[in-house]
Amino acid sequence: MLKAVRAFFNQRRYFKHRSTPKTWKKDGVKYGLVTYYPRHPDHVDPYFEPSKLLLIERIKPLKGCPYWEKNILLSIGLASEKKVRHQTVVKNIPEMCARLWKIKHLIKVTPVELPKNLPADVDSISSYLHDSGKLLIFPKIDEKRYKATEEFINNPKRLDGDTLQEKLRLKWLNAME
């Protein structure tokens, strides 16, 4: 029994498999603090402009989550228990990305695509943020078009949907007239 215990405790442990192999070290490309190992040696990543805003959507319920994940969701405004598909917009900064990394299994992150030419006057526009992350900006309706639409809707000669349906139904029933 003593030999079996001694053999159990005298095992040699090799931890070399946990480190990066020497054959890979020369192939690594450093991006700041991250070492990237491309599939092909001449591979170059295409340049892209990172989004300034992120659209965050909670996809999992809060039930059973630890308190620190609930606190992070509360700080970004997604802690409502009843709204599972609730969305919010946050800045794409390192501090926020570190928070989102901790709750990545509870959320869906979509970069917001801003148009190239944002108008300077924010009050004169109306916008819509699509679920795909695309921000659509509509110009303000001018007064002429607004008045023309109001006149068209309130015109007594115009047939609205109900009147038109009634007239066509009567014409269908009395086709010979």
Automatic annotation (TrEMBL):
Its main location: mitochondrion. Keywords: Mitochondrion, Ribonucleoprotein, Ribosomal protein, Transit peptide. GO terms for molecular function: structural constituent of ribosome. It is found in: Mitochondrion. One of its GO terms (cellular component) is mitochondrial inner membrane. The keyword Methyltransferase does not apply. One of its GO terms (biological process) is translation. Pfam families: Ribosomal_L30. InterPro entries: Ribo_uL30_ferredoxin-like_sf, Ribosomal_uL30_bac-type, Ribosomal_uL30_ferredoxin-like. Belongs to the universal ribosomal protein uL30 family. This is Large ribosomal subunit protein uL30m. The gene is LOC105367133.
